[in-house]
Amino acid sequence: MVEVILGVPFSYDANDEVRKLLEDFRDMVNFCIEYAVKRKITSYARLRKDVYEWWKKRWDYSTHFCHSACKIALAILKNHRRKRRDGKPEARKLFMQLDPQLYKFYGNKIRISVKPREFLYIDLKYGEYQRKFIDAWIEGKLKAGEITMNETKIVIPFKKDVDLSNPKDWIAIDVNESNVTAVSSNPHILKIETDLRTIHTTYFNIIRNVQRLRKFKPKTAKRLLKKYSGRRRRKVADECHKIARNIVEFAEEHRMGIIMEDLRGIR
Protein backbone atom coordinates (compact mmCIF):
# COMPACT_ATOMS: atom_id res chain seq x y z
CA MET A 1 0.00 0.00 0.00
CA VAL A 2 1.18 3.51 -0.86
CA GLU A 3 -0.13 6.67 0.78
CA VAL A 4 -1.16 9.24 -1.83
CA ILE A 5 -1.52 12.86 -0.66
CA LEU A 6 -3.14 15.77 -2.51
CA GLY A 7 -3.38 19.31 -1.12
CA VAL A 8 -6.76 20.93 -1.78
CA PRO A 9 -7.14 24.74 -1.36
CA PHE A 10 -10.19 26.24 0.36
CA SER A 11 -10.93 29.97 0.57
CA TYR A 12 -12.16 31.68 3.73
CA ASP A 13 -12.72 35.12 5.23
CA ALA A 14 -10.16 35.96 7.89
CA ASN A 15 -11.49 37.88 10.90
CA ASP A 16 -9.48 39.78 13.51
CA GLU A 17 -9.02 36.65 15.64
CA VAL A 18 -7.50 34.73 12.74
CA ARG A 19 -5.18 37.61 11.81
CA LYS A 20 -4.05 37.91 15.42
CA LEU A 21 -3.29 34.18 15.51
CA LEU A 22 -1.34 34.38 12.22
CA GLU A 23 0.65 37.37 13.45
CA ASP A 24 1.43 35.67 16.76
CA PHE A 25 2.51 32.52 14.93
CA ARG A 26 4.89 34.55 12.76
CA ASP A 27 6.34 36.02 15.96
CA MET A 28 6.74 32.48 17.34
CA VAL A 29 8.66 31.40 14.23
CA ASN A 30 10.99 34.40 14.44
CA PHE A 31 11.48 33.78 18.16
CA CYS A 32 12.50 30.19 17.40
CA ILE A 33 14.82 31.36 14.60
CA GLU A 34 16.52 33.80 16.99
CA TYR A 35 16.86 31.11 19.66
CA ALA A 36 18.28 28.53 17.23
CA VAL A 37 20.77 30.96 15.66
CA LYS A 38 22.16 32.14 19.00
CA ARG A 39 22.67 28.58 20.23
CA LYS A 40 23.58 27.06 16.83
CA ILE A 41 20.76 24.51 17.06
CA THR A 42 19.88 22.52 13.93
CA SER A 43 18.02 19.60 15.55
CA TYR A 44 14.22 19.79 15.74
CA ALA A 45 14.09 17.63 18.88
CA ARG A 46 16.64 19.80 20.68
CA LEU A 47 15.08 23.11 19.65
CA ARG A 48 11.61 21.95 20.66
CA LYS A 49 12.89 20.82 24.06
CA ASP A 50 15.14 23.83 24.79
CA VAL A 51 12.84 26.60 23.59
CA TYR A 52 9.60 25.38 25.17
CA GLU A 53 9.93 26.95 28.64
CA TRP A 54 10.92 30.29 27.12
CA TRP A 55 8.10 30.04 24.58
CA LYS A 56 5.56 29.29 27.33
CA LYS A 57 6.51 32.51 29.18
CA ARG A 58 5.55 34.58 26.13
CA TRP A 59 2.50 32.75 24.75
CA ASP A 60 -0.33 30.72 26.27
CA TYR A 61 -1.37 28.93 23.08
CA SER A 62 -1.64 25.14 22.79
CA THR A 63 1.76 23.42 22.98
CA HIS A 64 1.61 22.14 19.41
CA PHE A 65 1.92 25.72 18.14
CA CYS A 66 5.43 25.70 19.62
CA HIS A 67 6.22 22.42 17.86
CA SER A 68 4.99 23.74 14.51
CA ALA A 69 6.89 27.03 14.92
CA CYS A 70 10.11 25.11 15.65
CA LYS A 71 9.66 22.98 12.54
CA ILE A 72 9.10 25.99 10.27
CA ALA A 73 11.95 27.97 11.87
CA LEU A 74 14.43 25.17 11.17
CA ALA A 75 13.16 24.83 7.59
CA ILE A 76 13.73 28.56 7.04
CA LEU A 77 17.23 28.32 8.54
CA LYS A 78 18.08 25.29 6.39
CA ASN A 79 16.99 27.10 3.24
CA HIS A 80 18.96 30.17 4.33
CA ARG A 81 22.14 28.09 4.76
CA ARG A 82 21.60 26.28 1.48
CA LYS A 83 21.50 29.60 -0.38
CA ARG A 84 24.59 30.73 1.57
CA ARG A 85 23.07 34.02 2.59
CA ASP A 86 24.56 36.27 5.25
CA GLY A 87 22.81 37.44 8.38
CA LYS A 88 19.77 35.99 10.09
CA PRO A 89 16.62 35.03 8.15
CA GLU A 90 13.20 36.31 9.12
CA ALA A 91 9.65 35.05 8.58
CA ARG A 92 7.68 37.88 6.98
CA LYS A 93 4.60 36.27 5.46
CA LEU A 94 1.53 35.45 7.53
CA PHE A 95 1.01 31.70 7.41
CA MET A 96 1.04 28.69 9.69
CA GLN A 97 0.96 24.90 9.58
CA LEU A 98 -1.29 22.97 11.93
CA ASP A 99 -1.12 19.23 12.55
CA PRO A 100 -4.34 17.23 13.11
CA GLN A 101 -3.95 17.60 16.88
CA LEU A 102 -4.49 21.35 16.56
CA TYR A 103 -7.56 21.33 14.34
CA LYS A 104 -10.66 19.33 13.51
CA PHE A 105 -12.13 19.14 10.01
CA TYR A 106 -15.93 19.11 9.68
CA GLY A 107 -16.22 19.26 5.90
CA ASN A 108 -17.68 22.75 5.63
CA LYS A 109 -15.54 24.28 8.40
CA ILE A 110 -12.56 23.66 10.65
CA ARG A 111 -12.11 24.10 14.38
CA ILE A 112 -8.69 25.25 15.61
CA SER A 113 -7.65 24.48 19.17
CA VAL A 114 -6.13 27.86 20.04
CA LYS A 115 -5.71 27.38 23.79
CA PRO A 116 -6.81 24.68 26.25
CA ARG A 117 -10.63 24.53 25.95
CA GLU A 118 -10.65 27.55 23.63
CA PHE A 119 -11.49 27.07 19.94
CA LEU A 120 -11.66 29.14 16.77
CA TYR A 121 -14.15 28.11 14.07
CA ILE A 122 -13.56 28.98 10.41
CA ASP A 123 -16.18 28.52 7.67
CA LEU A 124 -14.71 27.21 4.42
CA LYS A 125 -15.65 28.34 0.91
CA TYR A 126 -15.56 25.67 -1.77
CA GLY A 127 -16.81 24.62 -5.19
CA GLU A 128 -17.44 21.37 -7.04
CA TYR A 129 -13.75 20.42 -7.02
CA GLN A 130 -13.47 20.64 -3.24
CA ARG A 131 -16.90 19.05 -2.81
CA LYS A 132 -15.59 15.77 -4.26
CA PHE A 133 -12.92 15.55 -1.57
CA ILE A 134 -15.33 16.50 1.20
CA ASP A 135 -17.76 13.75 0.11
CA ALA A 136 -14.95 11.18 -0.06
CA TRP A 137 -13.80 12.27 3.42
CA ILE A 138 -17.35 11.93 4.79
CA GLU A 139 -17.53 8.41 3.32
CA GLY A 140 -14.27 7.53 5.10
CA LYS A 141 -12.27 7.14 1.88
CA LEU A 142 -9.89 10.00 2.70
CA LYS A 143 -8.09 11.35 5.76
CA ALA A 144 -7.03 14.95 6.40
CA GLY A 145 -3.40 15.75 7.27
CA GLU A 146 -1.40 18.80 8.36
CA ILE A 147 -3.01 21.99 7.02
CA THR A 148 -1.30 25.16 5.80
CA MET A 149 -3.15 28.46 6.02
CA ASN A 150 -2.55 32.12 5.24
CA GLU A 151 -4.83 35.17 5.26
CA THR A 152 -7.02 33.97 2.38
CA LYS A 153 -6.64 30.22 1.89
CA ILE A 154 -6.43 26.98 3.82
CA VAL A 155 -4.77 24.03 2.07
CA ILE A 156 -5.95 20.68 3.41
CA PRO A 157 -3.92 17.60 2.37
CA PHE A 158 -6.17 14.59 1.82
CA LYS A 159 -4.59 11.16 2.22
CA LYS A 160 -5.56 7.84 0.73
CA ASP A 161 -3.92 4.41 0.83
CA VAL A 162 -3.63 2.98 -2.68
CA ASP A 163 -2.69 -0.59 -3.51
CA LEU A 164 -0.16 -0.41 -6.34
CA SER A 165 1.13 -3.94 -5.95
CA ASN A 166 -1.41 -5.72 -8.14
CA PRO A 167 -2.48 -3.64 -11.17
CA LYS A 168 -4.54 -5.31 -13.91
CA ASP A 169 -2.15 -4.07 -16.59
CA TRP A 170 0.80 -1.77 -17.16
CA ILE A 171 0.97 1.36 -19.24
CA ALA A 172 4.24 2.73 -20.68
CA ILE A 173 4.72 6.49 -20.98
CA ASP A 174 6.80 8.11 -23.72
CA VAL A 175 7.46 11.82 -23.19
CA ASN A 176 8.23 14.20 -26.05
CA GLU A 177 8.16 17.98 -26.21
CA SER A 178 5.12 18.04 -28.50
CA ASN A 179 3.14 15.14 -27.00
CA VAL A 180 2.96 12.42 -24.38
CA THR A 181 1.95 8.93 -25.50
CA ALA A 182 0.81 6.11 -23.22
CA VAL A 183 0.41 2.55 -24.52
CA SER A 184 -0.62 -0.68 -22.79
CA SER A 185 -0.82 -4.29 -23.96
CA ASN A 186 -4.65 -4.34 -23.92
CA PRO A 187 -4.27 -2.17 -26.03
CA HIS A 188 -5.16 1.18 -24.53
CA ILE A 189 -3.62 4.22 -26.17
CA LEU A 190 -3.60 7.71 -24.71
CA LYS A 191 -2.05 10.59 -26.61
CA ILE A 192 -1.85 14.04 -25.05
CA GLU A 193 -0.81 17.00 -27.17
CA THR A 194 1.23 19.49 -25.14
CA ASP A 195 2.17 23.15 -25.45
CA LEU A 196 5.65 22.61 -24.00
CA ARG A 197 7.45 23.19 -27.29
CA THR A 198 5.50 26.40 -27.93
CA ILE A 199 6.21 27.65 -24.40
CA HIS A 200 9.94 26.89 -24.66
CA THR A 201 10.26 28.45 -28.13
CA THR A 202 8.27 31.57 -27.25
CA TYR A 203 10.18 32.31 -24.07
CA PHE A 204 13.54 31.36 -25.61
CA ASN A 205 13.03 34.14 -28.15
CA ILE A 206 11.80 36.62 -25.53
CA ILE A 207 14.72 35.92 -23.20
CA ARG A 208 17.24 36.11 -26.04
CA ASN A 209 15.92 39.56 -26.97
CA VAL A 210 16.07 40.68 -23.35
CA GLN A 211 19.68 39.50 -23.05
CA ARG A 212 20.64 41.93 -25.81
CA LEU A 213 19.75 44.76 -23.42
CA ARG A 214 22.43 43.74 -20.91
CA LYS A 215 25.11 45.91 -22.47
CA PHE A 216 22.97 49.07 -22.53
CA LYS A 217 20.46 48.62 -19.67
CA PRO A 218 21.79 45.94 -17.28
CA LYS A 219 19.29 46.65 -14.47
CA THR A 220 16.31 46.54 -16.81
CA ALA A 221 17.63 43.37 -18.43
CA LYS A 222 18.09 41.70 -15.04
CA ARG A 223 14.54 42.59 -13.98
CA LEU A 224 13.02 41.36 -17.25
CA LEU A 225 15.06 38.14 -17.23
CA LYS A 226 13.78 37.35 -13.75
CA LYS A 227 10.22 38.14 -14.81
CA TYR A 228 10.15 36.05 -18.00
CA SER A 229 12.23 33.16 -16.66
CA GLY A 230 9.81 32.84 -13.76
CA ARG A 231 6.82 33.06 -16.08
CA ARG A 232 8.25 30.33 -18.33
CA ARG A 233 8.95 28.09 -15.32
CA ARG A 234 5.39 28.50 -14.00
CA LYS A 235 3.80 27.83 -17.40
CA VAL A 236 5.88 24.66 -17.87
CA ALA A 237 5.05 23.44 -14.35
CA ASP A 238 1.34 24.07 -14.94
CA GLU A 239 1.40 22.21 -18.26
CA CYS A 240 3.28 19.25 -16.72
CA HIS A 241 0.78 19.13 -13.86
CA LYS A 242 -2.14 18.91 -16.32
CA ILE A 243 -0.40 16.13 -18.27
CA ALA A 244 0.37 14.14 -15.11
CA ARG A 245 -3.22 14.48 -13.90
CA ASN A 246 -4.59 13.15 -17.21
CA ILE A 247 -2.22 10.17 -17.12
CA VAL A 248 -3.07 9.30 -13.51
CA GLU A 249 -6.83 9.57 -14.13
CA PHE A 250 -6.50 7.33 -17.20
CA ALA A 251 -4.41 4.75 -15.32
CA GLU A 252 -6.77 4.81 -12.34
CA GLU A 253 -9.84 4.33 -14.55
CA HIS A 254 -8.31 1.21 -16.15
CA ARG A 255 -6.49 -0.01 -13.00
CA MET A 256 -3.05 0.20 -14.56
CA GLY A 257 0.43 0.59 -13.16
CA ILE A 258 2.58 3.28 -14.78
CA ILE A 259 6.02 2.68 -16.32
CA MET A 260 8.02 5.86 -16.91
CA GLU A 261 11.20 6.39 -18.87
CA ASP A 262 14.15 7.83 -16.94
CA LEU A 263 13.52 11.58 -17.10
CA ARG A 264 16.55 12.74 -15.13
CA GLY A 265 18.27 15.57 -16.93
CA ILE A 266 15.33 16.33 -19.23
CA ARG A 267 14.81 20.06 -19.86
Number of strands: 12
- The share of residues in helices is 40-55%
Total number of helices: 6
So what's the oligomer here?
single chain
* Cα gyration radius (Å): 23 Å
Structural class: alpha+beta
**Largest sheet descriptor:** 5 strands, antiparallel
Poorly predicted regions are: none
Dominant shape? globular
N-to-C SSE series? Answer: EHHHEEEEHEEEEEEHHE
Mean pLDDT: 88
Count of discrete structural domains = 2
Strand residue percentage: 25-35%
How far apart are the termini? 32 Å
Polypeptide structure, described:
- The chain is α+β, with helices and mostly antiparallel strands and 267 residues long.
- The protein folds into two domains: 1-163, no CATH class; 169-260, no CATH class.
- The protein has six helices and twelve strands.
- The chain has helices at 16-39, 44-58, 63-82, 128-138, 196-211, 218-253, and strands spanning 2-11, 96-98, 103-105, 109-115, 118-123, 143-144, 147-149, 153-162, 169-175, 179-184, 189-193, 256-260.
- Strands 1, 2, 6, 7 and 8 form a five-stranded antiparallel sheet that branches.
- Strand 9 and strand 10 form a beta hairpin.
- Helix 2 (44-58) crosses helix 3 (63-82) and helix 5 (196-211) packs antiparallel against helix 6 (218-253).
- The longest helix is centred in the last third of the chain and has 36 residues, at 218-253.
Task: Provide tags for this entry.
four-stranded mixed β-sheet, five-stranded antiparallel β-sheet, alpha+beta, single chain, 267 residues
At a glance:
The protein is α+β, with helices and mostly antiparallel strands. It is built from 6 helices and 12 strands. The longest helix has 36 residues, at 218-253.
